[in-house]
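Quick illustration, no need to memorize.
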Amino acid sequence: MQLASPALPVGGFSYSEGLESAVQHGYITDEATAQHWLIDQLHISQSRSDLAVVAKAINAWRNNDLQKLQSLTQWILQTRETSEMRLQTEQMGRSLLEWLRNQTLVDDLQLNTCLQLPPTWPLTFALAVASTDLPIQDSLTACAFSWAENMVQASLKAIPLGQRSGQRILAALSLQIPIAVDHAMQLNDDQRQAFSPRLAIVSARHETQYSRLFRS
């Protein structure tokens, strides 16, 4: 529950993952279009990419499989399609690693291994849950819900929307999360993909957007 909380001090609130630019260019204009965009992003991007990596990384951490962890890290870094997307995964990964240093769940060897990978958000989140008895399915659900809450909050600020609209979008995303998690758990390494062209385009446009609330 703590790892799924938007209050976790990792800076997730400062990113909109291209949503702010999508609003700027008229792709998202209201509650309905925001909901449609985020559900698509959950299934097309999160489920097939980051959530699938977290699923593999949890077992890799539990088995001390350094080669697998290095392979997953390289895949994450190489599939960030814009510099701000890479900045996000690196910054949030480092912030979560610093948070873990103040906890007692992860030993120093694993913390140092994560630091050397280097840390990215999916790999560091996997490390955080790997030391617990939390099943992989529940871990991915927590990761997905954390993402959903942050994105809904970004929608409220960027469009803007009211709290009731935000709760309706979050409820719709919550119904889709189990489906996305099940799909992520079924993917093999050669089935993962990070191909969402419109998301990459709006992220690239956001990097040069004149006025911005968010870092991505």
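The CA atoms of residues 60 and 66 lie 7 Å apart.
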